[in-house]
Design goal:
303 residues, alpha/beta, Rossmann fold, six-stranded mixed beta sheet, three-stranded antiparallel beta sheet, 11 strands, 29% helix
């Protein structure tokens, strides 16, 4: 049967519209943790606000799952990571954002929950969570695994820890990492071995820049972090430089698809790897790597 010209035109237009539509980013999940109310050192002012800002950012970006947690103990942090790993099982993009204290001991990075005491250097093994434990939670995602750490603050734990081994090194900020797997990015608020500023307002300069650029529709994640870097350098008088470690392929990867975003890896079938690869990352002490917000309501600073 021959279709009337107007129906043929509508059919062609519909097919072209389907072809030209940007690839949808698939299932996207995010875990947001902000630790401010530390029990054994002075509380931090901004991480709770920073986490609230990033929660809003991911929700406005249309993420399928946004799990937001605040002031977690070590046990609660482990539970949150375990539950998030379940959410990431069928996800294309998995993001973990953490704001709080972090410490580097003997080249290994640890996130510090609010109930940690860390009276001795070897207490980190029991009371803190190594970065590798966080990476396990994003491992199941198929296209992009992203861990963002606003945790390079000047750390009071490192100043008061007793050394059980004289040669054990307690670093300033976080140690550089080299992820072993592809499609895994680890973003620091300040380059390895340096500390980040908390900012004069309700949010850190790093998180404000993240909220401005990270979920721009169609913007490749690497370029987004480049804009974040530029903003933070400008707003801190070149005193703080965010860094991203890891690598992605040649195709653009955007957290939010846009009309001009050609995301072939999302649109094409993604075969599962034949073997499980190790996602552990090696901390190293020198060499530099290639560096790397929509307007949203600010969260008032708690009294």
């Amino acid at each position: 049967m021959t279709l009337p010209p107007i129906l043929r035109g509508l059919l062609v237009a519909a097919v072209l519209l389907l072809i030209c539509q940007p690839a949808f980013a698939g299932k996207r999940v995010a875990l947001v943790v902000g630790d401010s109310a530390y029990q054994n050192v002075p509380p931090l002012r901004n991480p709770a606000n920073d986490a609230a800002m990033m929660e809003i950012t991911f929700r406005q970006a249309g993420f399928d799952v946004v799990d937001a947690r605040h002031d977690l103990s070590a046990q609660e942090t482990r539970q949150a990571l375990r539950q998030f790993a379940d959410s990431a099982q069928d996800a294309d993009i998995a993001v973990i954002y953490y704001a709080g204290h972090g410490v580097e001991v003997d080249g290994i990075n640890y996130l510090i929950p609010v109930d940690a005491r860390l009276e001795r250097d070897n207490d980190v093994f029991d009371e803190a969570l190594p970065l590798d434990r966080v990476l396990l939670a994003v491992e199941p995602a198929r296209q992009l695994r992203l861990v963002i750490l606003d945790a390079c603050r000047d750390n009071p734990f490192a100043k008061t820890m007793k050394r059980t081994v004289a040669s054990r090194a307690i670093g300033r900020g976080l140690a550089k990492v080299e992820p072993d797997s592809p499609n895994l990015l680890i973003a620091y608020s300040a380059k390895a071995g340096s500390t980040a500023q908390d900012g004069n307002g309700s949010n850190s300069p790093f998180t404000m820049a993240l909220a401005r650029h990270l979920t721009t529709p169609g913007l490749d994640i690497r370029k987004a972090f480049g804009f974040v870097r530029d903003d933070v350098l400008k707003n801190t008088g070149n005193q703080q430089e965010p860094f991203v470690y890891g690598s992605l392929g040649g195709e653009d990867v955007a957290l939010v698809p846009g009309s001009s975003s050609a995301q072939a890896p999302v649109a094409m079938p993604r075969p599962r790897p034949a073997a499980i690869m190790s996602w552990r990352c090696r901390s190293v002490t020198r060499r530099h790597s290639t560096p790397f917000w929509p307007s949203i309501p600010m969260v008032s600073t708690p009294a």
